[in-house]
Amino acid sequence: MQQARDFLIESEDVDRLISGLSDEQLQLVTDFKSWTIADVIAHLHMWNEAALLSLTDPEGFQAFFAPIGDHLMKGGDLKSFERARYADLSAQALVQQWRETYHRTADAFAVADPSTRVEWVGPSMSARSSITARQMETWGHAQAIYDVLGQDRVDSDRIQNIVVLGVNTFGWTFKNRRLDVPEAMPYLVLKAPSGDRWTYGEPSESNVIRGDAVEFAQVVTQTRNVLDTGLSVQGDIATLWMNNAQCFAGGPNPVPAPGSRKKH
After folding, report:
1. How many CA within 13 A on the CB side of residue 99?
2. How many other CB atoms sit within 10 Å of the CB of residue 101?
3. Closest alpha carbon to 118 in 102, 110, 130, 106
4. Domains of the chain
């Protein structure tokens, strides 16, 4: 499954980014909800482990998720749960566990039937969708690390998996906010990292989003406010979407304020 390969490469890119950071540097506070770099790695690690269990051990997944769900139902947040879960590990040991788990997760999904249904926090999904979500989470959360380290990311056309996820969650963005889903998704005209032209939806001059595919992915993963990108957004529906876009599960999450997410 190519998506498993893409997830692996995405994870390896992050691994290279943080390789050589000291325990102290791994405690640098990012612009994402004041999470540290170590918090980001803990989050990716826990949910990679959950995805692996959902594919290989459904009952184990339910047992794994039960205390997380209980913590959230009582008003706790993920950062506090994940910090407590890995409190006995040094930052370096946490990175090593994450490294081992993302390799095992990629290996398991690489040989899975893409259409296999796997359990998740909400509705079940296909194995292909599950591992694509892991790539999206890895790419999206890694932006905070790139930013705090003052590094630019060099993207490839595997970003298309995340773009497609953004397209597929157009309706979800509105339903999640209890808004009526527009009949027509805006026409997307995006430039891929390779220079290719990607289009989605029906051609329109009045309901259209044009620009860089990476910046579109940043908006739907909520790592940038649309006003901090060069995207050209025309039409009320296109504007409403880009002001609320959310390609990940969970309740409606507020988009970052303009200027709040940027390279240091």
Report:
1. 14
2. 19
3. 130
4. 2-154 (1.20.120.450), 160-244 (3.30.1050)
Q: What is the largest CA-CA distance in the chain?
A: 56
Task: Return the CA Rg of the chain.
Answer: 18
pLDDT tens digits in sequence order for the chain, 264 residues long: 999 999 999 999 999 999 999 999 999 999 999 999 999 999 999 999 999 999 999 999 999 999 999 999 999 999 999 999 999 999 999 999 999 999 999 999 999 999 999 999 878 999 999 999 999 999 999 999 999 999 999 999 999 999 999 999 999 999 999 999 999 999 999 999 999 999 999 999 999 999 999 999 999 999 999 999 999 999 999 999 999 999 998 889 999 999 999 999
Taking the C-alpha atoms of residue 147 and residue 264, their distance in angstroms, rounded to an integer, is: 6
Please report the sign of the dihedral spanned by the C-alpha atoms of residue 174, residue 191, residue 44, residue 224. Answer: negative
Contact 142, 151 (CB under 8 A): no
C-alpha separations of 190 from 47, 165, 194, 214 in Å? 30, 14, 11, 9
**Token pair 């050589």: residue:** 20
**What is the rounded distance in angstroms from the CA atom of residue 216 to the CA atom of residue 224?**
9
Is-contact 186 204, C-beta < 8 A? yes
Task: Give the three-state DSSP class for 36.
Answer: strand
Distance from C-alpha of 75 to C-alpha of 32, rounded to nearest angstrom: 20
